[in-house]
């Protein structure tokens, strides 16, 4: 069976698909394959934020732990999605937990490595930020709609 | 108001019951079964006191009368494969629906209809080929139940795949769970998501539009049936158009103040439509896409 390189995996992930080859190579230079079992934490609230996860298979729950109640799931994401944005900006600390709901395969991109390459190559930085911003906008808009509680009990009263 | 009535024959005559024929006169039906679906949603099975249950097309609605309280427009939630009493799934959001939700077996409810347009999923309907994407939000699955069942079980060549995407506020408010499982067993891809998770929920959390992006339907020739809160329908319809689905093949529901049910009174007018006659199911393309964005003054 043909072994797929990290660069090929990076180039086919929706976040980075269509990037020029040299940009893909730069990202791939910071990336490696990871796998998680059901229940494993990809990242934990309060811990240093150092990784961007590009999901290839499996589902991940973004959650926050509530004392006495346990984890509260805020959102679930699946293949093609991305997990982990706090490595982008100081203080580089995770704000939520992210837990594998089943067997998860992902490309992990070292955040510090990617930041350093972006600092040195502003064209790469622009391309990455453009794509990252689009995903963040999509997530923000979805969150805003959910705050509306469209299906809520009192909506029609 | 006077209404045309005919005296039914046979047992109806000896029992002295009258069978109204005017569309504005409710036909008495008996509640023969009821099921509490979720916290504020109840399904009633209604059988006419005399004669056979009315024929309907999936997506049409009836005006249900809670005698002494008033009338409300409620979609038929039966499937065409079910015979017998007609099902109506009612959410308790006001005086009439509160009375209907609390109707007990043996109680009498008035029924006028069926009225309005349908989803086009019958064999002679507008949906002939291609993938079908059914998107329901909250109790919006009730008007879609019959149509979803129809497309899942239809035969013939050129039929595409069926995707049923359901959003609910929380896991406890997902209705028709048995149907969702049955449709999945019959080959449909069923995708459920909730806005707010609860302990023990292992499914998805997020908007229906997020699940829509995961559905690998072929937009070329695809049809979409969308029912739910208008904001949800608007966002879903836009997402479908962005995916490449022809706006004229997206059907949404528009509901306003339905009263007469036969386009006489004008209470349900929205733009060029009298929705009790021209709706509730309308194609998203053209004027409807503008109406869904119209700011009411």
Write the layout of secondary structure elements.
The complex is a heterodimer of chains A (157) and B (297).
Chain A: H1 6-12, H2 21-28, E1 31-36, E2 41-43, E3 51-57, E4 60-66, E5 70-77, E6 82-83, E7 97-100, E8 104-110, H3 111-120, H4 122-147
Antiparallel strand pairs in A: 1-8, 2-7, 3-6, 3-8, 4-5, 4-7
Helix pairs in contact in A: 1-2, 3-4
Chain B: E1 5-7, H1 11-15, E2 18-20, E3 27-38, E4 41-48, E5 61-66, E6 70-75, E7 86-91, H2 95-101, E8 108-115, E9 130-137, H3 141-153, E10 159-168, H4 177-185, E11 189-194, E12 204-205, H5 208-214, E13 223-227, H6 230-243, E14 250-253, E15 269-270, E16 273-274, H7 275-278, E17 281-283, H8 287-291
Helix pairs in contact in B: 5-6
Account of the 3D structure:
The complex is a heterodimer of chains A (157) and B (297). Chain A is α+β, with helices and mostly antiparallel strands and 157 residues long. Chain A has a single domain, classed as Jelly Rolls. Chain A contains four helices and eight strands. In chain A, helix 1 packs across helix 2. By secondary structure, chain B is α/β, with parallel strands linked by helices. Chain B folds into two domains: 5-115, Elongation Factor Tu (Ef-tu), domain 3 (Beta Barrel); 130-291, Rossmann fold (3-Layer(aba) Sandwich). Chain B is built from eight helices and 17 strands. The radius of gyration of chain B is 19 Å and the shape is globular. Classes of the chains: A alpha+beta (157), B alpha/beta (297). At the A-B interface, strand 5 and helix 4 of A face strand 12, helix 5 and helix 6 of B.
* Number of H- or I-type helical stretches of chain A: 4
Number of domains of chain A: 1
The CATH class of chain A turns out to be: Mainly Beta
Numbering strands along the chain, what is their spatial order in the largest sheet of chain A? 1-8-3-6
* Range of strand content of chain A: 25-35%
